[in-house]
Amino acid sequence: MSRRTSRSRGPGAPRITAGSPCPCGLPAVYGACCGRFHSGAAAPTCEALMRSRYAAFVVQDAAYLLRTWHPETRPPGVDFDPSMRWVRLEILDTTEGSAFHSTGTVTFRAHYTDDGRPDSLHEKSRFARYEGAWVYTTAVFVD
Length: 143
Description:
The protein is 17% helix and 34% strand. By secondary structure, it is an alpha+beta fold. Strands 1-2-3-4 form a 4-stranded antiparallel sheet, with helices on one face. The longest helix is centred in the middle third of the chain and has 14 residues, at 46-59. The protein is globular, with a radius of gyration of 14 Å.
């Protein structure tokens, strides 16, 4: 998700604890799911990185988003829109992106509200290994 480009865990972020359901949609608590990646563990696949980046948008973790962005395409900062709330992630397709690959893609739809109005972002994100870790490189907006 390349839409927003700062501050880390902004005041508008929902209160999510280690025991809260993970925002990425997997049936796990945040601390055992995306929270461990936000705390420094490496995502094992590009889908796991995509899910953790979505969760980082939810909790407004700018440092994580920047750390997992390829340096050739990384913006100088991340700016979170205070009127936007991310509400649900749907993974629609993945290609490659496992431990045996050096690149991969994840096509997803991220649902959000903007000033209370529902909308969604449909994107195909590209990922690559950089210095041994998965990083986000670029995206193509599908709609």
